[in-house]
## 1
Amino acid sequence: MKRLCKAFVCAFLLCAGSPAAMAAGEPAAGYEQLLQQAKELLVNYKDSEALQVYEQVLAVAPENYEALCKASYLHCRIGDRFGDETSKINHFLKARQLAEQAYALNPTDAESNFVMGLSIGCQAMVEGPRQRLAEINQIKGYIDAALACDSSHAGAWHILGRWYFKMANLNFAEKLASKMLFGGISDNATNEEAAYALERAIAYSPTNIRYYYDLASVYAEMKDTVACKSVLEKAIALRYETKEELELSRRCKIMLQQQHKS
């Protein structure tokens, strides 16, 4: 439970965003085949291979908007899997750099705002307390912009839910620092808002077990045993494809056992 509060946005927990458009005016010829290959690899959970293909595109077309967004997303996702801080930080720094390039090309698109929020959240995981709070406070603006462009963006709803959950459960020192540095916490940063946002994420991506696990964690914090059990039972019934999903299913089963005992 506390792990979710501290690591409010783990990259592997996020689904891929909706397909991004190419940068305005950029010729698609020569890149379509590589982009399609990368998409297929991504759909088949071959993240490292997909990243390599997107980087091939960027080597010859550094302003390819789709490749920038997807490569940023994948650096976040892959970086989170590393145990050592150096590798993790290197991936997160690259993710932020690519996200900023995509945002500069198209600051009003859902995907560029999504990867900005995602990459900032990933960096916050490896920063000190003060910098972490500063970066957490930047996230919501990008995610709000992403959802204003695409209200069905499951990944953006997921980050928003985790943001609400993190802000609603700051410890005393974090609340004091937030008040001194940023004027306090938004009144609607509540567990209820977190649950609503995560429910929307599930509605738009009903097979992503991470969304169920995070929603169940929020309900557990709210002491809503009935809702928590219901979400966990749905999560356990899902089909799993990756090691991360299998690990999340194990955690869901443990949490469900704990809920039955409570």
## 2
Amino acid sequence: MMNDADRLQTWIERGSVNISQLFFQFYKELQISDTEAMLIMHLNAFHEEGNEFPTPANIAQRMNLTEDMISSSMQRLMQKGFMEIHQKLDDQGVLYEVINLMPIWSRLIDCVFAKSENNEKETSKLKEGQLFQLFEQEFGRFLSPMESEMISMWLDQDRHSPEVIRKALMEAVLSQKLSLRYIDRILFEWKKNNVKTPEDANKLSKNFRKNTIQKNVIQPEKKGTEQIPPASNVPFYNWLDRNK
């Protein structure tokens, strides 16, 4: 499994993320002060220049802070778990120290994923709200508490997506069987057949209707001719008759 360092490096190489932009977007959320944020950016700049262990004196030449202030800020950042000091071996086997900024970059990754999850949750809530409105629109009235609870069960317990439930509602509307019982039966059959998306539902419904048309073909009598009912006579599958 790819660790945070490898994942971040992959993102950077693909141009999917810019460290500076990502940092300035989230450092306030991580409760990093403006002074600490500028210090981290200077440390990152030194790293990019090949200096993995800049001293407070080095940094003071670029910031309006004293060496003592910089040392104190670096200690606070280490106490907060935003950076670490590691030891490495050079080509001659001599130990040397480096300032590791990966902890702060890992925290930034967590912020990105948390934001993405929050956006997905907000989008899901919006879709669910629109779903209830659509039901009221099609029913031409407000939903009863029991009806609202049933729709919530489809979402929360049966784990149907709002898109699939919307598709089942449209199926009921077009079949002129507008009732929650009928829609519940549709969703029950779809779940048994592993329907996950509206596209899956379309494919399954198409197959059921095709079979229905074939079953309704009137076999020719000896003295008659074969008659096939027009497709308009069986336009929609009766899901309540599924097990009959």
## 3
Amino acid sequence: MPGSKSFNGGEGCHYADDTVWFTTKGDNRVWQLDLTGNTYELAYDDSLVSPGTPPLTGVDNVTGSASGDLFVAEDGGNMEICLITPDDKISPFLRINGQSASEITGPAFNPAGDRLYFSSQRGTSGSSSGGITYCVTGPFRT
């Protein structure tokens, strides 16, 4: 359709301050949609990372903190939640070990912004009944 944009496998979404960030799993990208300016741009694309191994693979769920940092969970990859700062610095925030048959899901902050909750969908068992929910306490950057 003329004037439209197709995205490859939309997955996670976060809204704050007239901006929507969303992930596309099929091409491992994080997008930023400016609702005020009616524009969109790439916030992260693993194929543009060079040299070396991209810090974030298997983009999935996404949430944001009061500081504007994005926390992007990996589906597979290194089982990490990676941080993308407002000035486009990307780094691992945390990694779950011993759960390679799982994926990180649902990162979200409590209303006070001092606790980050997320789950390992299948935990250490690899079974859908083996999920584990975690709580990471802050303070986080403000």
